[in-house]
Amino acid sequence: MVHIDEKLEPILAEVLRRNAGEEEFHQAVKEVLESLGRVVAKHPRYANHALIERLCEPERQIIFRVPWIDDSGQVRINRGFRVQFNSALGPYKGGLRFHPSVNVGIIKFLGFEQTFKNALTGLPIGGGKGGSDFNPRGRSEGEIMRFCQSFMTELHRHLGEYTDVPAGDIGVGAREIGFMFGQYKRLTNRYEAGVLTGKGLVYGGSRARTEATGYGATYFVQSMLATKKHSFDGKRVVVSGAGNVAIYAMKKITEFGGKVVACSDSNGCVVDEKGIDLAVVKEIKEVQRERIAEYARRKGSSARYIEGGSIWDVPCDVAMPSATQNELTGKDARTLVHNGIVALGEGANMPCTPEAVRVFQEAGVMFGPGKAANAGGVATSALEMQQNASRDSWTFEQTEARLANIMRDIHDRCAETAAEYGAPGDYVLGSNIAGFVRVAEAMEAFGVI
Ligand code: NDP
User: Fold this and answer.
1) Average pLDDT in the 189-205 region?
2) 410 CB-contact burial (10 Å; exposed 0-12 / middle 13-18 / buried 19+)
3) Which of 308, 417, 426, 437 stands the most exposed, by the fewest C-beta atoms within 10 Å?
4) Which pLDDT tens digit goes with each residue over 305-333?
């Protein structure tokens, strides 16, 4: 079991004290600090000038009121957030999440993770994250539009293609990005395409951005499997969630010859031994915006729906948790190990609890952490920014080829870094150190700011 180096302990203690009650943020910082002991031992200068302390403190945190009017004429109030975590490598970059569970601690954990993830891509992007405790479920299109417009009415003054460039996340897809971009354009009277990513194709979006996170995570797992002479071919795979990341992970896994036998939403999971029929999932989730239970109703006897059941009880060779944080516990990990899992790639951010990660690593399961495995989304967002800046538009094949290369590079950089620091095969350590070193080099160059 990894411990925090004694030099770094006071930093963690201060983060816990200063951000009381923000459990997800504590969890994310602790995991990174556990990895950094080895870097500080080798390169003590990284601990100078409170560099690590500064890295744990967001550069700016914005919290604002979002008033909007529902379809019955009632005024509703939500809370909006943008945490601009670190801009050492480029403009703040990271998604917006609309979900009732959102609070400042969750946004901070996501912004912190994003800083390392974005560094790992090798592209010039800093880290940030935002969102609202607004619950889009059951809301009409008009309500969603009015909410997005009100949210952007405050947020727009903090954004800009050289300042902060949000994208989507849970509850924010192409429709919401469209409403927000429209409002930004109207408020600023500027067609500044590079201010948001995940845009529609006709107004500056990039081909393959929608697919990028799920595809990228699958490429990452493919690279991990290849190190042990495995492939997806013939493997049973379980993917949690049924949103953007899950859908395109399932698509690429199937293309690679794997068989996805289960997926889920927050109410329950569906198991289909014939292989999940993606066209049906897409129709239910992307078009009709219904519950995954509907899948079993449509598919009849080949599929079963388990209300409230754990998707991790379904035996598989590869798992890709792609729904939300801490959705896979130590107990779930032990079940998966018992059922013979060989590899896991985190499509979501921090979906495995620290105990689950430990169980996988001790059992020798190849484990791809989210900050490396799901970096394909933000990497393709950076490619969208490149296309916007050059007023160009690439083909799907060109963009996907760039994504595949980036994911291979991220995999190799994590693997090489882990080996260099004496922990071959430990992608958690490799990703934390490789991401940290890039951010730290830039922060060092800037002096104390
Ligand atoms: P979506 O909103 O498109 O989908 C989220 C899916 O997860 C939905 O099916 C949702 O079900 C399900 N879900 C949410 N909470 C739970 C839960 N507690 N248990 C089971 N299922 C749940 O979001 P994304 O696919 O965009 O994001 C998924 C994850 O991937 C998040 O962790 C996000 O931060 C991460 N990510 C996303 C990127 C992107 O480009 N979109 C990039 C990198 C990471 P329901 O409808 O019931 O809520």
Assistant:
1) 98
2) buried
3) 308
4) 999 999 999 999 999 999 999 999 999 99
State if residue 172 touches ligand 1 by the CB under 6 angstroms criterion. Answer: no
The CATH code for residues 60-192 is 3.40.50.10860
| Catalytic residue (choose from 93, 108, 117, 129) | 129
Mean pLDDT of the chain: 97
> What are the CA-CA distances from residue 121 to residues 306, 323, 400 (Å)?
38, 22, 15
Task: Pick from 109, 139, 265, 326 the residue to mutate for probing ligand 1's pocket: most ligand atoms within 8 Å of its CB.
Answer: 265
129 has catalytic annotation? yes
346, 360 contact by CB (below 8 A): no
Contact 93, 378 (CB under 8 A): yes
Ligand 1 atom index nearest CA of 374: 43
Q: What is the pTM of this model?
A: 0.98
Give the model confidence (pLDDT) of 257-268 as tens digits: 999 999 999 999
Residue 280 burial (10 A CB sphere; 0-12, 13-18, 19+): middle
Instruction: Please report, for the chain, the start and end positions of each structural domain, with discontinuous segments joined by +.
Output: 9-55, 60-192, 210-373
